[in-house]
Amino acid sequence: MYHFPESICPAPLQARLQSQWQSWCEQAGKDEAAALEAQLQADASQPLLVARALLGSDFLLQQCARTPGLLSELLANDDLGLAMPDLSTLESDEDLERVLRFLRNRVITEAIWRDFAGQWDIPKVCARLTELAEICIQAALDWHWQKMVERHGEPRNREGQVQPMIVLGMGKLGARELNLSSDIDLIFAYPEPGQSGGDSSEIKPLENQAFFQRLGQRLIKSLDTVTADGFVFRVDMRLRPYGDSGPLVSHFAALEDYYQTQGREWERYAMIKARPVAFSSLPGGAQAAEELMELLRPFTYRRYIDFSVIEALREMKTLIQRQVRARGLTDNVKLGRGGIREVEFIAQAFQLIRGGREPDLRVRNILKVLPLLEQDGHLPLGAADQLRDAYLLLRRVEHGLQAEKDQQTQTIPAESERREQLAFALGYAGWESLEEELLLAQTVIEREFDQVIAPPEESDEISESDRWELLWSGCERDSDRDTWLAQLQGAGFVPAKNALEAVSALHGDRIVSALPVAGRQRLDQTMPLLLTAAAEVGEPLLALERVLPLLRSILRRSAYLVLINENPPVLQQLLRLCSASPWIADQLARHPVLLDEMLDQRRLLQPSTAQDIADELRQHMLRVDTDDLEAQMEALRHFKQGQSLRIAAQEVTGALPLMKVSDSLTWLAEAILQQSLSLAWQQVTEKHGMPNGASTDDMRFSIVAYGKLGGLELGYGSDLDIVFVHDVDGAGYTDGERTLDAQSFYTRLAQRLIHILQTRTLSGALYEVDTRLRPSGNSGLLVTSLAAFEKYQRESAWTWEHQALVRTRPVAGSGRLGQAFEALRTQLLCEARDEQKLRKEVVAMRNKMRAHLDKSNDRQFDLKHGTGGIVDIEFMVQYAALAWAQRAPSIVRYTDNIRILESLTEAGLMPAHQAAHLIDAYKAYRSEGHRLALQQLPGVVSGDQFEAERKTVTTTWQQMLG
Asked: How far apart (Å, rounded) are the C-alpha atoms in residues 763 and 21?
């Protein structure tokens, strides 16, 4: 008999190895033992592989002994393969069960061998085991389907369509992560109720529910029953609706109703990995499986960023840890601290939180999720690889434990000899080496798990929090009113009476009393945190009063309360911003989804370039179905609201100065115009084709900005003054099935663009659009050719229209046409003009505007229209540009007032000190105007403000325009 070299394995294991070899030889027979012994002697690498397998797995030894030639096959081949059984050769259910169990035992044996030999990594092992399960489930389904149909006919819906059964694989099966001794968690479903039947009198019809119930029971029996050949897979059906007390199988409508009305958080967690693993082989079976997954998706992945799952996962983990302690499972590589389950929780927490907004995260396999989380910044750099390596080590140890006796275990044995056997089978020099790696892996997992899910440590201020908790819970008790008032007064809530009334009004509100238990618990957790944080801002009462409307708006969407509770920096920033600006508070109350923007404090306060905004918008839109216009319009609005909030936050915190605020808002509008134009172009060209010479790269269409957009001076609520031009021959036609002449095509394009911008969806409008500055105003064409625009400007335009031209620039559409427009603008502005006539017309227009729009009086000054205000500066700049551009074309290179004033100085047309005074006054007015806008106040100030600036502007006006 062959003797393994002593150097093969550690000395304490040598006797057991020889005993295992002898046992195999006796069971396999002399001839096979002799043949294998010759193989081992011929190839020096093979004895180690056999030694690892025999010491690591009693199950492998038994299977190789029962199946002649199997051990030799494993040594001689890299992969024994896996094929669907030929059901046509079977005659009975017993034949099916025998074939499936033989297949299962062979594949499990090979998986153990390849793992211990180091020939397959864990993902390959799991993939093969998953494939085995899929084949066995499909084979059993196909076999019993045919038998059921022969007896009861095909199940059909009320319209006569045959109904398939869909088998959903959950857990590790759904994620293609099955281990050696996994249960398979299944859910059975079928599309619609109805009845089976057929033409034959021998057919015994069944209601579809009964048909699929029996089919499911037979499928489970074929897989789960333990026979002389063992079992295929233990089947667990407890993840179905209502668990063990629910029907074994449900139709789609019943499933949808259950998950919409009664689905629990842990069921969302489970549904991440759900996947159709088998279905009746019928026309429409695959389609029905897809329909089922689409039906379940909204339950699993919420449209908003959902922090409620952290609380649910934490509760699940706490329960598991209690079980671990109660059952003494501290050495459990799955459930113990730093175990497999914690890696799964890390990944699935982010999937549930963000999967509704980030479809890329909707993948089932954990090894595919981890790099995506790091890529998107949800995990620290390098954490994905560390977690992956730790996870794979734990999974390999898990497989080693289960391979020993084909038992479902994840607990490291206490006996030192068994620990050494495990280490040797996995290729380690000894248990100490494996244990060291295990401890390192578990430490990595613990650290990342605590960052994501573990409860935060109690802070030193818990007693203060308790005080606010007592106030919140008892704020309506008159007997404690003086206590509460003193507490609020001491914390800076002045007057305390107003603060107590605000808190009490919320506490007693009917909407609060009607909250479900979970929602009320979250609010009760939020309010002490809110009051604590409000006491730390400059004006606690103001912050509280401004944030309470937001709180009311999210009470029924309490996942946002969890977001606030889980992220103290978010709450602090929220209070600071609301205190600084009622505009911000109002935006958040109207659109709570904007709270998501506050999660990344660095990103919130980091100013963006025009390119940053455009790139971010493109990435944002890539996540939206290109065929769903409504979703695209909502996505544009969400993006605009989020960016506007970020810009406002940067302004009120001082991270962004005034001129950069207007730049950022202008860049945002430009990016949205370009994206909206692309959407409009796609829709119109799909229906009508493209005009001659036009393409997606050059639409031969340009959006020209006027006013604040043209002058890079947008505010938060500014309209967009825009004009549309094209340069296609109006006599040409589009090349689509429903042709249009070019003028009609571009008119449709502009109308579609305006629709995208102005339509009020659930999130409101993007921008209000004003096109009245186009040639001939409202009576003119919506879209003008560049040639017609030039003709109008030269022959028919009023002086005020030439003034408006000073602040025009192309902002979206054809780059080539935009350059042509800019050249034309320069020509028009540089035309020679009668300065005396120009001065007279500019003054007349200014007086007309002041008479109609100036809100100034003895007590207040209108920043924009008052004498010496913003419009006076703008009119002087426009007059200077029109009067002097012929002499110095450089002064009309820019469209914003400040750079035009600077250009006038550079050209020697205005004294430097005079331009500087106008620039300072202009900045001061604009800064105050922005501040008032964020406070939601009109643009008027006390009459004694800005006296010096107003005098400077008025004096300059007299010097320039008389």
From this structure: 73
Residue 305 has pLDDT above 70, yes or no: no
User: What is the Cα–Cα distance from 101 to 229, expressed in whole angstroms?
Assistant: 6
| C-beta atoms surrounding 667 within 10 Å | 22
Closest CA to 363 of 273, 294, 270: 273
CA–CA distance, 103 with 83 (Å, rounded to integer) = 9
At residue 40's C-alpha, the angle toward residues 37 and 46, to 5°, is 145
- Token pair, residue 471, equals 């106030």
* Sole residue written with tokens 């945190």: 529
- Angstrom distances, CA of residue 674 to CA of 679, 759, 767: 9, 17, 13
What 8-state DSSP symbol labels residue 459? P
Which pLDDT tens digit goes with each residue over 554-564? 887 777 888 88
Alpha carbons 469 and 527: distance in angstroms, whole number: 7
Where b means 16+ CB within 10 Å and e means fewer, 421-441 reads: bbbbbbbbeebeebeebbeeb
pLDDT level of residue 460 (50, 70, 90 thresholds): very low
Mean pLDDT of the chain: 88
- Give yes or no for residue 457 having a pLDDT over 50: no
Q: Cβ atoms within 10 A of the Cβ of 946, count?
A: 21
Q: What are 721-762's pLDDT values in tens digits?
A: 999 999 998 678 888 888 899 899 999 999 999 999 999 887
The H or E element containing residue 277 is strand 275-279
* Residue 160 CB neighbour total at 10 angstroms: 8
Beta bridge partners of 705: 722, 809
Place of tokens 């598991």: 320
Domains of the chain: 78-300 (3.30.460.10), 308-449 (1.20.120.330), 456-604 (1.20.120.1510), 655-829 (3.30.460.10), 831-961 (1.20.120.330)
To 5 degrees, how large is the angle CA 636–CA 638–CA 644?
Answer: 100
Length of the chain: 962
Residue type, 784: T
Query: In what helix (H) or strand (E) does residue 166 lie, and over which residues does it extend?
Result: strand 166-169
Retrieve residue 727's tokens.
Answer: 């340069």
What CA–CA distance (Å, rounded) separates 556 from 711?
43
Q: What is the DSSP string of 766-798?
A: S--EE-TTSTTGGGS-SEEEHHHHHHHHHHT--
Q: Which of 375-379, 499-503, 595-599, 891-895 shows the lowest mean pLDDT across its residues?
A: 595-599
| Most confident listed range (15-29, 65-79, 98-112, 489-503) | 98-112
**Residue 935 — φ and ψ, nearest 5°?**
-90, 5
What is the rounded CA–CA span in Å between residue 357 and residue 117? 43
Collapse the DSSP code of 2 into the 3-class scheme (helix H, G, I; strand E, B; otherwise coil) and give the result. coil
Query: Is residue 579 a contact partner of residue 537, using CB atoms and an 8 Å limit?
Result: yes
**699 pLDDT more than 50:** yes
Query: What pairs with residue 250 in β-bridges?
Result: 189
My answer on whether omega of the bond before 85 falls inside 30° of 0, hence cis, is no
The number of helix segments (H) and strand segments (E) in the chain equals 41, 14
Show the DSSP H helices in 719-834 as ranges. Answer: 742-758, 786-795, 799-805, 815-829
Token pair for residue 701? Answer: 């269409």
Q: Cα torsion for 741, 747, 749, 751, to the nearest 10°? A: -150
Tokens of 643: 């960016």
Tell if the pTM clears 0.85, that is, is over it.
Answer: no
CA–CA gap between residue 446 and residue 412 (Å, rounded): 18
Place of tokens 């505010």: 715
Chain CA centroid to CA 537, Å: 31
CA nearest to 117, candidates 166, 49, 174? 49
Element (H, E) at 50: helix 46-56
Position 564, amino acid: I
3-state helix, strand, coil in the chain (%, to 5): 65, 5, 30
